[in-house]
Amino acid sequence: MIPKLIAVMGPTASGKTELAERLADELDAQLINADAFQVYRGLDIGTAKPETRDRYLLLDLKKPDETFGVGEYVQRAHRELERLYGEGRNVVVVGGTGLYVRALFESYDGMGDAPPAELREFLNAKPLERLVERLRELDPERAEKIDLQNRVRVQRSLERILAPSPSIGLALPPFCKAKLAVVPDVPITDERVARRIETMMQNGWVEEVRRIRSEGYSCEDPGLRAIGYRTLWRYIEKEVELGEAVATTIAETRRYAKRQRTWLRSEPNLIELDMGDALADARRHLNMQ
Asked: How many CB atoms lie within 10 A of CB 4?
């Protein structure tokens, strides 16, 4: 029997992790993370890392001050998938970063090797303003097309210019593939987001940010772009009140969930599950009944 490769997608707080883990139980499948910020060690509460981390691959790969992007993700995931296919294992990929899933499943081209470590360290040490200035000098056209407030995108653009590498084309092993989505109604998602943020606060999210701060990391580090971390950093710095920080984080998360829903509407070959019983609907589409 051909092994299955299943993606479980959905906006924040949609229940995709629970569904993915149920499917993995029933299929004896390996779980693989597809969340851009769950790859960072120490960012646990605010990224909603799963409780059973030992069941997952591609969690806790990087320190908060290290960069990570879709190219490295796809290369790492591809290596794991080749191994798992060779073992005849089913795989369930789950996470909120739609680009990672799409790039992996649709075999995106145009991704290159990571730049030399010395170059990355050199750029990491430069302030964003200097990176923007350098990008405008080297490639003004590219500088016009990207968000110059996004350090990761600016730095990646410079890395591609200063250390070009040949594109890597990665073809997935011939799994039986399916992409499933759980998309609750907007009011349900908004309510779940608020409850999730409140629970994160009760579980010690502020203390997590304090610990990261005490370890010498900067709020400008790539990992700290995850929603809520910089806002709570500002609370610790006494720039905002706690209530304002929580409200801001809830609003930002709801906006992110809206962007995720927009992304999913254009996702190729996506099966949106019946929210009345998503697990049963998933079983039906996967011929598990």
From this structure: 19
Q: Tell me if 199 is assigned to a ligand binding site.
A: no
| 276 among annotated binding-site residues | no
Same domain (yes/no): 30, 87: yes
Range of the domain at 143: 117-162
Pair 8, 139 in one domain: no
How far CA 153 is from CA of 7, 38, 54, 67, 147, in Å, comes to 26, 19, 31, 10, 7
Residue 17 marked ligand-binding = yes
> Are 148 and 79 in the same domain?
no
15 is in an annotated binding site: yes
Q: Is 167 annotated to bind ligand?
A: no
Convert the pLDDT of each residue in 119-147 to its tens digit: 888 888 889 999 999 999 999 988 988 88
Q: Tell whether residue 42 is among the known ligand binding residues.
A: no
Question: What is the value of pTM for the model shown?
Answer: 0.82
Q: Do residues 138 and 180 both lie within one domain?
A: no
Question: Are 236 and 273 found together in one domain?
Answer: yes
CB distance 3 to 30 below 8 Å: no
